[in-house]
Amino acid sequence: MKLANRIITFVLVVALLFAGMSTTIQDILKDVKLGLDLQGGFEVLYEVESLVDGKDVTQKVLTDTTLALGNRINKFGVSEPSIQVEGEDRIRVQIAGLDDQSSARELLSSTAELTFRDVNDVVLLDGTDLKEGGAAATFDQQNQPIVTLTLKDANKFAEITGEIASRPPGENLLVIWLDFEEGVDSYAAEAQKQNPKYQSAASVTQVINSTDVQISGSFTVEETKTLESILNSGSLPVKLTEIYSTSVGAQFGKDALNDTVFAGVVGVLLIFVFMLLYYRLPGLVSIVTLTVFTYLVLVVFNGINAVLTLPGIAAIVLGIGMAVDANILTAERIREELRVGRTVKEAYQLGSKQSLTAIIDAQLTTLLAAVVLFAFGTSSVKGFATTLIISILLSFVTAVWLSRLLIGLLINSGYFNNPAWFGIAKSKQHKPEEEVSTLDLTTKFDRLDFVKHRKKFYAFSLIILLVGSAVLGIYKLNLGIDFSSGTRVDIQADEALTKDEMVKYLDEIGFANEDVLISGDEQNVAVMRYKEDFTQQQILDLKAKVMDDFGHEPNVSTVSPTVGKELVRNAIKALSIAALGIIIYVAIRFEWRMGIGAIVSLLHDVFFIIAIFSLLRLEVDITFIAAVLTIVGYSINDTIVTFDRIRENVDRSGKITTKEELALIVNKSLRQTMGRSVNTILTVIVVVVALIFLGAPSIQNFSIALLIGLVTGMYSSICIAAQIWFTLKSREMDKKGTAVVKKEKKQWGSDEPVV
Q: N or C: which end of the chain has fewer CB within 10 A?
């Protein structure tokens, strides 16, 4: 029976969805907060040290410091800067969309640690004793620029001045310092100089019961205004040391955003075309749900006030690929049921039910990798993980629930009962009376005997292991500054550059470097790496010179050795925890032998990526770790689907008594999932290739790592993970003389929405 109302409902639902999205998308895009890598800006990680020896840096001190830094930043009119406390002694500052980066960084780094000391350099008062907003730039009676201060407690000042006044002449001095360096500065040494570092050393002969103090010195009017601004913004109660910084010029950010968005759009459109041509009706539904998925990601992103970065865009695109995976998995299951003679409605119901478990298992394992990445990542990597988590959760909502709702409406209308709507030719269909099961269906890969050639696969992977180890031993890894520490500088020009002219230019401006790499589509970007981490002043000087000569602010990133070592430790910890979590999950949901197979294949994939990067001398930075962990999650996705099909076919057989029967089950399972694996990988590879050739240069290595991992992930799922399980299972049968029997499994929730 044909029900036109189902078609009408489908059209109305789709129309309402697209109408809602089209009328709100502009506002949503406008509200998306872009990271500094997409609009320019800078990020600094400070190590916080107490000004007083033996005094701990407490959480209250860190909070007070963030407030002071926030006050300083607000003077530049920056909306919603990111200032976060990390750990016990660090503060991370991120400011995006700021034109005058140099002035902002100079103001932030100008700690203006105001202290009142005696001649023995003992601290009597500090910046915390200042009244809020009590500093003012003015002039003295001789019309000389000075800064006046208002203290909070007159009694405290009276007590201090009374104690100093009691000392003999020459020792009754109240010395005012800015940025006193413990162990370096002293009054005794500076007093011998013509231009001492301290601001003033006033003789105190009587008790001063007042809150008014003035700082005089050889100030210019501009210097007093800057000092006023710093003090009123909050005289920091601590010393801040830069241990990591990165700066992105506005033009770099704009170009990166445009290139990456364009690459993403091209990749997604190609996916849409493939899904429509290959899967027909399910492909049409997937286009709708994938569009809704992308829209919802942006909505949720705005809702949690997250910041979108370049890796974040890559995560959205990757999420689209994973949503496609869920659609393909369901569509392939429906196609299998149609081929054995089921009606379209029966095929939809059975295919939806049978694919649900595999989808959930695959999504959960990928989610595990994303959570680990969030826990141990920093900065843009954490943003990538956030986006990936959102993408995984929303892909389940859209690719499972919404897809089934929409395709259910179409199928239950009765107008799409022809299997051709699902891309199934008549020659591929069996009649119900033939009683053919999905286990017996032919595939394009029936000639392939995977189990028979497992030793060849093992040998190939062993050769890869040995060659890769030799490559790593000879070439090592080309570690970026994220891990090796130092400084990276990117200079953009309006015309093509050459290495020789850049080497000469760098030498002329006092930043000599022979290691110059020319990149960019128009060969207009020069990339330099320095072993030392530049000081804040060096960065400001370099930026000023490059800006004058090229008209674009350069990107400058610095990493201290301390941070570099921590990133290495965190990367190893993240990979270890992700691997352990996955093997535990697989062991619980399937069996421990499948867990072993899964983890071996993952380590195989990770090592292959590392070896290729070493051989090609590609730079390994923090985004490389994000790519590796993504592949860990995505590779296990493939492996889970394969194991799910093996378990299903074992259950259908009931009991397997010989290794020949076991081999047949493994081979058939691999053949049946091969088409799905190839289609899934191809759709994601399309996007990744688009990101490599059309995306921003800053995520090129990230995309290359994904590409290598996707290909090796499919190989290892089929040729390593499944074969290891077969080998271990065969040994169990030989040792115990037992058969492989059906294992009861739990079903995940309901199988389909009611339409």
A: N
Query: Position of tokens 């397997």?
Result: 656
Q: Is residue 363 assigned to a domain?
A: yes
State the pairing for strand pair 82-86/516-519. unpaired
Is 314:691 a contact under the CB 8 Å cutoff?
Answer: yes
Specify whether 399 is located in the same domain as 339: yes
Q: What is the pLDDT of residue 53?
A: 65
Tens of pLDDT along 8-26? 999 999 999 999 999 999 9
Q: Please report the DSSP string for 268-306 in residue order.
A: HHHHHHHHHHHHSHHHHHHHHHHHHHHHHHHHHHHHTT-
Beta-strand relationship, 478-479 and 555-559: unpaired
What is the 3-state secondary structure of 239-264?
EEEEEEEEEECHHHHHHHHHHHHHHH
The answer as to whether 751 is a domain residue is: no
How many CB atoms are closer than 10 A to CB 272?
19
> Does residue 207 lie within any of the structural domains?
yes
Examine the fold and report which residue of 248, 270, 289 is the final residue of a domain before the chain moves on: 248
378 and 408 housed in the same domain: yes
Question: Residue 23 CB: number of other CB atoms within 10 A?
Answer: 9
Work out the average pLDDT over 27-46: 81
**DSSP character at residue 717:** I
DSSP string, 579-624: HHHHHHHHHHHS-HHHHHHHHHHHHHHHHHHHHHHHHHT-EE-HHH
Sole residue written with tokens 């629930």: 401
pLDDT greater at residue 390 or residue 573: 390
Which pLDDT belongs to residue 750? 40
Q: Domain for residue 44, yes or no?
A: no
Residues 295 and 149 in one domain: no
Residue 40 structure tokens? 């320019």
Q: What pTM does this model have?
A: 0.71
Which amino acid would we find at residue 732? E
φ and ψ at residue 727, rounded to 5 degrees: -60, -50
pLDDT interval class at 509 (50, 70, 90): very high
Q: What is the pLDDT of residue 107?
A: 63
Find, among 337, 371, 341, the residue nearest to 355 by Cα: 337
Tokens 């990445």 correspond to 373
How far apart are the C-alpha atoms of 665 and 667, rounded to whole Å? 6
- Same domain, residue pair 226 and 317: no
pLDDT of 344-363, one tens digit each? 999 999 888 888 877 887 78
Q: Are 92 and 382 in contact (CB under 8 A)?
A: no
The two tokens of residue 85 are 């406390």
467 and 491 together in one domain: no
Residue with structure tokens 């076991």?
Answer: 662
Last residue of a domain, one of 219, 248, 277: 248
**CATH assignment at residue 595:** 1.20.1640.10
For 422-520, strand residue ranges (E) read: 478-479, 486-492, 516-519
* Percentage with pLDDT > 90 across the chain: 16
Tokens of 622: 């923090």
What percent of the chain stands above pLDDT 70?
88
Q: How far is CA 176 from CA 116, 145, 180, 214, in A?
A: 5, 16, 9, 10
pLDDT in tens, 386-439: 888 888 889 888 888 899 899 999 998 888 989 999 988 888 888 888 888 877
Q: What is the pLDDT of residue 61?
A: 74
Is the per-residue pLDDT at 341 higher than 80? yes
Are 492 and 402 within one domain? Answer: no
Phi-psi domain of 606 (left: phi exceeds 0; alpha: psi -120 through 50; beta: other) = alpha
Write down the number of H helices and E strands in the chain.
Answer: 23, 21
Task: Say how far apart CA 16 and CA 357 lie, in whole Å.
Answer: 31
Q: In terms of residue numbers, what domain contains 627?
A: 454-476+563-741
Q: How many domains does the chain have?
A: 4
- CATH code assigned at 160: 3.30.1360.200
Asked if 83 and 168 sit in the same domain, the reply is: yes
